[in-house]
Amino acid sequence: MRNFDLAPLYRASVGFDQIADLMDRVLTNDVAQPTYPPYNIEKIADDSWRISIAVAGFSEDDLSVEVRESALIIAAKKATEEGKHTYLHRGIATRAFERRFHLADHVHVTGASHVNGMLNIDLTREVPEALKPRRVEIATGETVEGKAVESAEV
Questions:
Q1: E strand or H helix at 12
Q2: Can you state the percent helix, strand and coil of the chain, rounding each to 5?
Q3: Considering only Cβ atoms within 10 Å of each terminal Cβ, which end of the chain, N or C, has fewer?
Q4: pLDDT above 90 covers what percent of the chain?
């Protein structure tokens, strides 16, 4: 396991303290990542994405999509059907799962749909107006009491 010193990052930047938390989560994750169920993450536009998860065998009632703090949590639990069926081969996995995705600031879930065995979750980044860049006009002349005054021509 390697240890990284992020002190140079803090000296040259402001507001990137969450990167250290993210790197800690990634680097200290000794447990093998689960591969079930398979999923895709696709970029729809500059500020929107779609997560598609293969959930064959699960109905809408078996699935749960929840946003808690800054995490998207998708869980599924199939109702037990013990004794109903006798399988000669069981290749379709319907075991319970929980999949977590950490969401960046201002990313919101805008919808979810379950079509043809795929659970599609749409995400959009909605930056508040107060955080969007704005242009500041530069006044010429002298300032008096915080207000710009045009210089008098001689």
A1: helix 7-12
A2: 15, 35, 50
A3: C
A4: 27
Count the neighbouring beta carbons within 10 Å of the beta carbon of residue 42: 10
Q: pTM score, two decimals?
A: 0.64
Q: Helix, strand or coil for residue 104?
A: coil
Q: Beta strands of 33-151 (E only): which ranges?
A: 39-45, 48-54, 63-68, 71-76, 97-102, 107-115, 118-125, 142-144, 147-149
Q: Do β-strands 71-76 and 97-102 pair in parallel, antiparallel, or remain unpaired?
A: antiparallel
Residue 102: both structure tokens together: 């950490």
β-pairing verdict for 118-125 and 48-54: antiparallel
- Total residue length of the chain: 154
Structural domains of the chain sorted by starting position, each given as residue range(s) with its CATH number in brackets: 36-127 (2.60.40.790)
